[in-house]
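hey so i finally got around to running the thing on that chain from the lab meeting. sorry it took forever, my laptop kept dying and i had to restart like 3 times. anyway pasting the input first so we r on the same page abt which one it is
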Amino acid sequence: MEGVFSHEALFYESEDHFLSTVVPFVQQGIADGDLVSLNLGSFFDELVRIEVGDDPMLRVGDELAYTVPVAVLNHNQRQIRQEIASGVTGFRCVGAVDFAPERVRWQDWVRFESLVNHVLSTYNFKGLCVYDVRTSDPRVVAGVRRAHLGLHDAVGYTAENRAYVGPVEFMGLAEYAPHPDPLETRQPELDSVDVTDRDSLRFDVNLVIVGTELHRRVVTDFSYAVNEVVTNALLHGRRPVRVRVWTSAREIACAVTDQGPGNPDPLSGYRLASAGTEATDTLGLWAARQLCDEIHYGHDANGFTVRLSVRRPRTTPAVANSAQ
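ok and heres what got predicted. didnt touch it at all, straight out
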């Protein structure tokens, strides 16, 4: 189902400023027959619900809403498709991203904001992302401004943001580019320099990563993700394929390098595929993205490298919209 897509940001400075923009956005969605989802945290969710009132088309709070970027994108796509199947024709979402860095770096959440413009652009979807400028990191605010065409701030409403950058270009911006995991400064626990046997590699990877404190399901998922990436490298890349793995108590990082040309599309593997619509290598990357926290790829001194990582926070995430 195609329709009108919009993805705007609100930078508010007070509770009144917040409500004066969010409440009309929600009310208009309900009036249009859209399914409206609030994911602002319990306090602000309730604040908006009190102003708007209860309505069957209003969904308040979603514990799956913001975990890691790729999980959010996948969850939103699945939810929209399910609701379309039940007869819903339009969607609105008001959300606040938690930029606490315990699990995903703030740069990845800024990139997430741009990816929304690619992943959800084919749906009848209107999103409003809210940021408290009193507590938001200036780096986050600057990045978010470039990822939204429509802006609401103290000046008013800007429908055509001149600083807006499309998703493909945004993924290439140096200030938000992914970097190798800090674990990579150490010697890897596993360094397989010319992989040809995926079964043997899977055994070696599992032997290394099983010693972490991460949940067994997380470890198993990560192993499958590595297998998907290695399969792509063997099928579509060029030997030798090198696999390195690093671990700490609460984190696993892996780098898979081959000597092929690599994937030139920075947006591969984010959209939920329909049957028969995407190539096998893209589906493999999509599957791998679902099984870990971060996947980045590009050329480096060693060749074309895909980097995967998974981590778990030690504490409850901190204040929303902050970065460190």
